[in-house]
Amino acid sequence: MLFIIALLAFISITLLVIILLPMSILPGATAQDEDDEPGGFMYQLKPLLSQMARLNARIDMPIYKSNLEKILTAAGDPFGIKLNGDEFIAFSQLCGFGGAFMVGLLFGFSPVSIVTGLLFGYYLPYLQANSARKERQHSIQRQIPDFLDLLTLSVEAGLDFNAGIMKLVNSARPTPLIEEFRLMIQEIKLGTTRYDALKAMATRVDIPDFTNFVSALLQTDRLGSNLGPTLRIQSDQMRTRRMQLAEEAGGKASVKLLLPLMVFILPAVFIMILGPIVVPLIF
Prior knowledge:
Blueprint: H1 2-20, H2 31-35, H3 41-56, H4 62-75, H5 85-107, H6 111-156, H7 161-171, H8 176-189, H9 194-205, H10 208-223, H11 227-256, H12 258-282
Helix pairs in contact: 1-5, 3-5, 4-5, 4-6, 5-6, 6-7, 6-11, 7-8, 8-9, 9-10, 10-11
């Protein structure tokens, strides 16, 4: 019994360390690279997560599990292995046990510390996945206009849509957007229609602007119109949207600076200005 508890504690603490350490701590390391190595720790852990997922499958939470899978897909499998909703809950449960054990070692095994560590460890994988999703979506949002410019030039030069994407995918450095288009081309090669492949890519990326772009492409393709003008219009709209997002982020920055300004800077300024006046009055 003690051996099983110690083994679970070791696995849970190791998972917490993997989550807390950035995935890019090694040059060129990515989640996909980790997944490609069968000897990796997360890969070896997959059978245990699958066994725990069978128990979690009995819990009837389809909406919650569907949202988890949607976040993991949009994040690009941030933990190096493909997890479904039940497996991700099992992963969070192991991290919860590790969090409770670590907090108990630091602050004593009281009910408050155990519950705090359990909640912290359980929600940490979700926070990590959600952060990876937002970062990946932001990267795709910034890359879309430039990619569409190059795709427009390729299509206007005489290449068809699939050939233009293949040319860009083969010549560009790996990025989240390039990986999504590469996966789309692979699905088309395996027999999926371009309509279904584009719809699946829009679902995976889960960005409203990107979904609108895919809808415009599908509408143009359905009507048999030329893709060149549509791509150029979508490129201009995406670039305008990117500038609007940058301006919006700049406007929010001034509001976010108010709290540190009021808490740290203004008190120091008041001390420097009023200090020489107040101190002689007091003494």
